[in-house]
Amino acid sequence: MLNKKSVDDIQVKGKKVLVRCDFNVPLQDGKITDETRLVAALPTIQKLIKDGGRVILCSHLGKPKGEPKPEMSLAPVAARLSELLGQEVKFAADPEVVGPNAKAAAEALQDGEVMLLENTRYRIEETKNGEAFSKDLASLAEIFVDDAFGTAHRAHCSNVGVTAFMKENAVGYLMQKEIDFLGNAVNNPERPFVAILGGSKVSSKISVINNLLDKVDVLIIGGGMAYTFMKAQGKEVGTSLLEADYIDYAKEMMEKAQAKGVKLLIPVDTVVTKEFNNDAPSRIAEGDIAPDEMGLDIGPKTRALFADAVKDAKTVVWNGPMGVFEMPNFAAGTIAIAQALADTSATTIIGGGDSAAAVNQLGFGDKMTHISTGGGASLEFLEGKELPGVAAADDK
Ligand code: AMP
Questions:
Q1: Is the pLDDT of residue 134 over 80?
Q2: Whose CA is nearest to atom 10 of ligand 1?
Q3: Phi, psi (degrees; rounded to nearest 5) at 359
Q4: Is 238 in the pocket of ligand 1 (CB under 6 A)?
Q5: Is 201 considered catalytic here?
Q6: Which one, of 341, 336, 317, lies nearest residue 325 by Cα?
Q7: pLDDT (tens digit, 9 = 90+) per residue, 81-93?
Q8: Where are the beta strands (DSSP E) in 208-358?
Q9: Domains in the chain, ordered, with CATH?
């Protein structure tokens, strides 16, 4: 269990509480196209309302890079949150984020009322963790609550800098839930524990592979990163994604797996094509890939092999697609893994990002034990790193 002060440990009646949420939602023409992160933030907000806190929400959205860009305003989030909460969420439209409008709105708040600040990244200092903006944020409230798991791997003003100027810093329910699920899975798993890694590059997941080899019974590698491992096994990979600088690293990881008794599963067949194009003709290749062909998905034998490992698991953690799943003709591997996770009785944890999107799009969302709201944060957690956003909260 996370040993940090939580919203259950603070007295908020009559006090102004600044709550950092992750409202970084996809927007299209001003409409929110996936509100998972808003829904995930509700339990903490509702608890603070019930306890009579004066709730000041804040978040970033997109990358406005220190400029007030109207298309990245949080106004649509305030509107939708009002509907989800069944009460008004006042929006402090303030280009300085903590300017005269925001300050006046915060002062006027009554017990149980809620307001939302403008996009914290309208301020250039936000991502640099600059002191002036941290102080501005802190000046609005008496207590700080961080519930933004999706940002926990970053040390920015609104989740880390601000804590230096607040007397009390707690974490919200979402942060607690994310850390508890990921932490239990990784550090106290029911075995067999199977981790599935995919996505494009070995180089971006080096520490994850290394750390997980100390924890898992089976490590499955698919996606673009698998070709570097296949090359390390002595296979030809044609024009597939290959990180030549990491072949030795892949060999080292294969040796580490063997020394630790971890089963390392790498594709035995792949779907190959001559062009990076959904409509290009494709075939299944076993063994070597021809010099003019590239692998864009795991093949049917590999899907069966991976699904079989998942079937016997008691804990499964998945991060990264098995192929170029954005193209329907190369999505079958990713779909097969999502299906295998939906079918197993194991505890299944999806590490955010592309795998979470794939699982949700396929309609398997409610079949998973936990889908993380933070791709980058969950990946850094799997690397065994301490997340600055979590570390900054007061210990219990
Ligand atoms: P990442 O951001 O590292 O998790 O990688 C996700 C991306 O990896 C997705 O956009 C996939 O299209 C891509 N990907 C997965 N498998 C392959 C592959 N075999 N070749 C090229 N790209 C791939």
A1: yes
A2: 324
A3: -60, -45
A4: no
A5: yes
A6: 336
A7: 999 999 999 999 9
A8: 218-221, 263-265, 269-273, 282-286, 294-298, 315-319, 347-350
A9: 7-173 (3.40.50.1260), 181-382 (3.40.50.1260)
